[in-house]
Amino acid sequence: MLASGAALAEPFYINVNNFDTSPLGGTDGLTSLIHQFGINWSATSIFTDDDGIAGITVGDSVVDSGFGTVSSYLDSNANALDGGEANEGVGVTHRLRFSYNDLVGKVAINDGLGGILAKYTGGTINVYNDNNVDGDTIDAGEKLLMTLDVFDSAGTAANAIIFANVSFVDPGSFFFPVATDWSSLTVAIGARIDSNVDALLPTQIDDTTWTRTSTLDGSVSFNRVPEPGVLALLGIGLLGLGAARRNKKAA
Fold it and tell me: Angle at Cα 215 formed by Cα 210 and Cα 221, nearest 5°?
């Protein structure tokens, strides 16, 4: 990791008053500092052979889509924040959901065992609120909270870093201390994929196309990116952080 600590997962907090229409009684609506989101999601990848080499190889095209749930808010030790005043009723009076359907890029790694990393160059991730935890985002008061426009990525199959611009954020909802709203920020999203519930290997559709749908869980962290020139270094640092936490958890 970078000696400066710039690549550590940057804590943030959420003002759920902006979207939770039935906030947890006796709480102020502000979460404790969140270091990571615990997430569960369904992901589908479509791979296209671009080079005529048999199988899915580096440089082949990929389009990803998916949807999922922020299942928990995690502290600096990757433990779920407990208590209503810390997590403001996540999973009880509100829950965040996310979706994407157009992440495009090229295969950067394929280990042949199901570990496939894409280098993304475009796409959109949207975050919504489910303010009564009923599994949808269509009820009164439920709305789009954030749009992340992806423009680059790096990492490994199990520890991916996605770089995105925050093109929209619900004003006054997400903050980096001290009170820095996420509007118009560039962020690095560190995604740690902890397990696969479904089979890993893609299914061949025809001579040039493969698809894979998996149910996944893991965690994501966020860092502000001060300037484009630090992207590579930030990515390296986030990978180191992910490895260190894996080793600690395994111990």
Answer: 110
- Alpha-carbon distance 214 to 41, whole Å? 8
How high is the pLDDT of residue 243?
A: 39
Contacts for 60 with CB less than 8 Å, ≥ 6 apart:
47, 48, 49, 50, 51, 106, 107
* Residue 170: DSSP 8-state: -
The span from the CA of 130 to the CA of 67, in Å, is 13
Q: pLDDT digit string (tens) for 17-30?
A: 999 988 898 999 99
Structure tokens at 173: 């909802």
C-beta separation of 133 from 91 below 8 A? yes
Residue closest to 12 by CA, chosen among 74, 98, 71 = 74
Residue 40: strand, helix, or coil: strand
| Pairing assessment for the beta strands 174-176 and 13-14 based on DSSP bridges | antiparallel
Instruction: State phi, psi for 162 to the nearest 5 degrees.
Output: -115, 130
> CA 59 to CA 104: how far, in whole Å?
12
Provide the pLDDT for residue 192. Answer: 84
Helices (H) and strands (E) in the chain, counts: 2, 13
Determine if residue 3 is left, alpha or beta; phi over 0 gives left, psi from -120 to 50 gives alpha, anything else beta: alpha
Kind and range of the H or E run holding 244: helix 231-250
Sheet order of strands, 13-14 included: 13-14, 174-176, 180-181
